[in-house]
Write a structure and sequence with these properties.
The complex is a heterodimer of chains A (about 210) and B (about 400).
Chain A (H helix, E strand, L loop, with lengths): L2 E9 L16 E5 L3 E5 L6 H8 L6 E7 L2 E2 L5 H10 L1 E4 L11 H12 L4 H10 L15 H13 L5 E5 L7 H18 L2 E6 L10 E4 L1
Parallel strand pairs in A: 3-8, 3-9, 6-7, 7-8
Antiparallel strand pairs in A: 1-2, 1-4, 4-5
Helix pairs in contact in A: 3-5
Chain B lengths: L1 H7 L5 H33 L9 E5 L14 H9 L3 E6 L1 E2 L3 E8 L2 E7 L2 E2 L20 E7 H15 L6 H6 L1 E8 L2 E13 L9 H12 L8 E6 L5 H10 L2 E2 L4 H42 L1 H9 L4 H42 L8 H30 L3
Parallel strand pairs in B: 7-9
Antiparallel strand pairs in B: 1-10, 1-11, 2-10, 3-6, 4-5, 4-8, 8-9
Classes of the chains: A alpha/beta (about 210), B alpha+beta (about 400).
């Protein structure tokens, strides 16, 4: 997948609003593979909604979203599952980890269907992100910042053309935030993928190709 | 898959599944037993080894006046009957035309009586015995008695006269003294009872014996038969009763009896299968509710699994496997129950039928597999629909 185009897209609840001054809603914007985007937004401007639309989680919008020129409105659940396994990866704002599984199991439950990383690479990421001792800890016993790092590792365990990061460093200190950035840039470059990060203020220190205001 | 199972097994209610298991097991076992009993008993009522003899009728002309010579059937009467569509086969009764004197030693005394023999073609006889043959020169005559005679003695005569009851085997061991006379001959024979008939209400000897003895002891005249035996497809059919009424013939058998028995069997089986079906249906409702509740309790996990890229069919797999294992175990156990039950009642049925019947629960296996397929397909469908509903974007 090479590009994502949003054509006149607006969340249904904003449809009647005239005062939207946005680089994304109610306009035409194309996100290209290989580039780095920062989507800056104030709370309540539809940042997570945008991620949900791009990820096929929600469909409550007007306008068209096109993947390589193809309207995604007609995609079936199985097509979305394919896209989620191979084309778009996401780090959810609410992480969507499974509390009763261990950190490693949470990563494996994704890697088992994509078979992209070996155990060593996964363990190396855990070490690099400073949670090497948490491999076998249950997720619901870990801090939010630690969980955020596990969720990132899970997001990296698949092939993708676009990686969506919904407030990826909201609970990380600068040091861990920089480690995370390095890993993301390294992996995205290896895959030739676009990085799309959202932020409500604090954002990763990346040389973005484009900043879009929501 | 192990991880998905670890996630999704949470909230599985062992109690609900156990209730489903027991209820469906009872339902399935009852249904399959009903079907198997039906398929085992039906051929005994309708098949070649018919118990009640529904396919055979004995036809006579009623005695209208007292006098010499019973009413007989002419060659035209017989030809006309043979032409009827409902007659599958027709046999003539041949009677002995000579004097028969039977005797038996009883408590040291010799009891003797005048008697007569009749014969019908072998294909009409419901007793199989290796001793059922006669050749000129034999000194032993095989005899088949109506089972009614024995019953009359055992349940009537012996009871009132304080005499011991006798079994079929005892009678088969007794030697009857038979003296035949006529046409200037007088000879002694030994009569042996080789079997008991439910169908033919007369003292039967082989046709070969009657043919030979009638020519030897009686200068056999072509005798007109007084009784006919008919094999008919359906003795209760209106064309049969109409024909008999039109010609003034009487049927000795009670043709409606077998259809009544078959009807009764069908009603019983319908009731049994109906009860089983209610059990199964209720258990299905329990399982459906249980699955819905389970999916509802795990809804966030299911949503998240689909969101990280698991296809609904894969997410459904653990639940499908669970219902498959449950239903297959139910099938296997209920088939085992039917098999054991069949082993027990077949012994009893074999006693009634007078020959051993093989016990293979074919009908139960076929119906059980079909029923399980339907139940499993239904389970898969509701699981898949619910998971699809959860997976759809909002």
């Amino acid at each position: 997948m090479n590009n994502i185009t949003l054509s006149n897209v607006v969340p249904e609840i904003f449809a009647s609003r005239e005062d939207l001054h946005s680089d994304i809603w109610h306009t035409e914007v194309t996100l290209e593979r290989g580039k780095r985007y920062l989507i800056e937004a104030a709370s309540g401007t539809g940042k997570s909604s945008l991620c949900s639309y791009l990820y096929g989680q929600r469909g409550d919008y007007r306008g068209d979203i096109l993947f390589d020129g193809e309207n995604v409105a007609s995609y079936s659940t199985n097509t979305w599952c394919d896209i989620r396994q191979r084309h778009i990866s996401i780090l959810f704002q609410d992480l969507k980890l499974f509390g009763e599984l261990t950190a490693l199991e949470n990563v494996r439950i994704k890697n088992d269907i994509t078979h992209t990383k070996d155990l060593k690479s996964i363990v190396d990421w855990f070490e690099e992100l400073g949670i090497g001792d948490k491999l076998h800890s249950r997720i619901d016993r870990m801090s939010y910042g630690q969980q955020q790092r596990v969720a990132l590792i899970r997001a990296l365990c698949q092939p993708y053309s676009f990686i969506l990061l919904d407030e990826p460093i909201s609970h990380l200190d600068d040091k861990n935030s920089d480690i995370m950035r390095d890993i993301i840039l390294r992996e995205a470059a290896a895959q030739g993928a676009a990085v799309i990060a959202t932020s409500i203020g604090k954002h990763m220190n990346i040389d973005y190709d484009k900043c879009l205001r929501l | 898959m192990r991880l998905i199972w670890k996630l999704l097994r949470k909230h599985i209610s062992v109690f609900e599944l156990a209730v489903f298991f027991v209820a469906n097991l009872i339902g399935m076992a009852v249904i399959l037993a009903g079907v198997q009993i039906y398929s085992d008993i039906k051929p005994m009522l309708t098949g070649e080894k018919s118990l009640i003899g529904n396919e055979y009728m004995i036809v006579t002309r009623p005695v209208e006046r007292v006098g010499i010579g019973a009413p007989t059937f002419s060659a035209e009467d017989i030809a006309d009957l043979e032409d009827q569509d409902f007659v599958v086969n027709l046999g003539l009764f041949a009677a002995s035309q000579f004097e028969v004197d039977g005797s038996i030693m009883f408590n040291g005394r010799r009891l003797s009586t005048m008697m007569f023999f009749e014969a019908v073609p072998d294909s009409f006889i419901d007793v199989t015995s290796k001793d059922w043959h006669f050749e000129a020169g034999d000194k032993s005559i095989p005899i088949i008695l109506p089972r009614n005679y024995l019953n009359l003695y055992n349940f009537g005569f012996s009871q009132t006269q304080k005499l011991p009851q006798i079994t079929e085997d005892m009678i088969k061991r007794v030697e009857l003294g038979i003296r035949l006379s006529g046409n200037g001959h007088r000879d002694d024979y030994v009569g042996r009872v080789v079997g008991f008939s439910d169908r033919l209400n007369t003292i039967l000897v082989p046709m070969d014996f009657i043919t030979w003895a009638n020519s030897y002891y009686a200068e056999a005249k072509a005798d007109r038969p007084t009784r006919l035996i008919l094999e008919v497809a359906n003795p209760g059919a209106p064309e049969v009763t109409n024909y008999l009424a039109e010609h003034g013939y009487a049927a000795e058998d009670r043709p409606a009896e077998s259809s009544k028995a078959l009807f009764l069997l069908k009603v019983c089986v319908a009731v049994i299968v109906g009860i089983g079906a209610i059990f199964s249906l209720l258990s299905m409702i329990i399982l459906t509710l249980s699955i819905y509740l389970l999916l509802q309790k795990n809804i966030t996990k299911l949503e998240n699994l689909v969101l990280i890229g698991h296809k609904p069919s894969r997410v459904a797999m653990p639940y499908n496997l669970m219902t498959l294992i449950l239903n297959l175990s139910i099938l296997v156990i209920s088939l085992a129950v039917v098999y054991i039950a069949q082993g027990k009642y077949m012994g009893y049925l074999s006693d009634i039928a007078g020959h051993s019947l093989s016990a293979t629960p074919t009908a139960a296996v076929i119906v059980g597999i079909l029923l399980t397929l339907v139940i499993v397909a239904f389970n898969f469908l509701i699981i898949y629909r619910k998971i699809r509903e959860i997976s759809k974007k909002r």
